[in-house]
Request: fold
Amino acid sequence: MNNVPKLRFKEFSGEWEEKKLKSITNKIGSGSTPKGGEKVYKNSGVPFIRSQNVNNNKLIFDDVTYIDKKTHTNMKNSCVKANDILLNITGASIGRSCVVPKTFEEGNVNQHVCIIRLKDNYKSTFLQFFLTSYNGQKLVSQGQTGSGREGINFQSIGAFHISIPSKQEQEKIASFLTSVDAKIEQLTQKVKLLKGYKKGVMQRIFNQEIRFRSDDGSEFCEWEEKNGNEIFEPISNKNHNSDLPVLAISQEFGAIPREMIDYQITVTEKSVSTYKVVDIGDYIISLRSFQGGIEYSNYKGICSPAYIILRPFIEVNRYFYKLYFKTDRYIKLLNRNIEGIRDGKMISYKQFSDIKLPYPSIEEQTKIANFLSSIDAKIEQTQKQLNQTKEFKKALLQQMFV
Reply:
């Protein structure tokens, strides 16, 4: 049998039936923009769904506009109902889809979102999961029309050839994948909460609302303040044979080898010879330092001479300052000391030096760093679980559909 999935619940057998999508639907269509321009849109009323509201396989209302009841009634052909599948059909978000939740009462869509309403014997969540799979996205890609292949029409959607099992098997598959989605949502929320907790506790620590004690229970001494040049010095070591990895300096990853993040910038052998050596534990003032603080390097490598490399010359806990340089408090101080360059802004070493930095005792720095690194470990562990669950779902989508 050819028309069966690679991975299947053992209680089911037999081939799936291939059908055109239009044969199992009561509706394939989209809406339009209401007449009257911006004046039609309200801050409350009936939700008017646009492509940005269909994201991450969910109907999202973070950025939603509304129309009044009369406009909604006049647009009856684009009314959205619970259990409808919404599919984005134009632009960069083409192919994103979701199922309208059962709790949804009423709404409309614009012309960039297609409503797919199935007949009673078919499960919306099953079809939506199929649309997110490799085979489903392949159908969306093949169905695009126009010179830029940037849109898909109702005829193409209706012509999708879809293999469908019995309703019982549809429900089993949909229920199982929904439970995987629930796990992904749970882990996503856990990562978000841990990051929020870390940000909040960091703010309190660096505002000295939370203080640590030494191992014998005694209080640490009051924090000193030092200018940046009393702790860090600029490093401009170009003594290398261009055999070290070229580092990308990014707000998301810090200083990291370019090949690890697919950073596609070509540099010549001659220009690399002018690059500066970065040691593990160095800090780099990024070209857009006013946006995200100062970056930290976990790697030895080389970076463009445009960057300022900082290295502590007195005893510090390097992780303590890695964290402090990313606080809102420090970034606000950076914003007061910026100078324009080409495509961004950065501070000079002199301006960095003018900013006062906290300098607790090295023992308290270490206590703070260890505490916050334990939170980082929890975030990293949860993020790893989340990534593994997403990969697990991806594999399921490839094997549970025909």
About this structure: The domain at 17-164 is CATH 3.90.220.20 (Adenine-n6-DNA-methyltransferase TaqI; Chain A, domain 2). The chain has a mean pLDDT of 90.
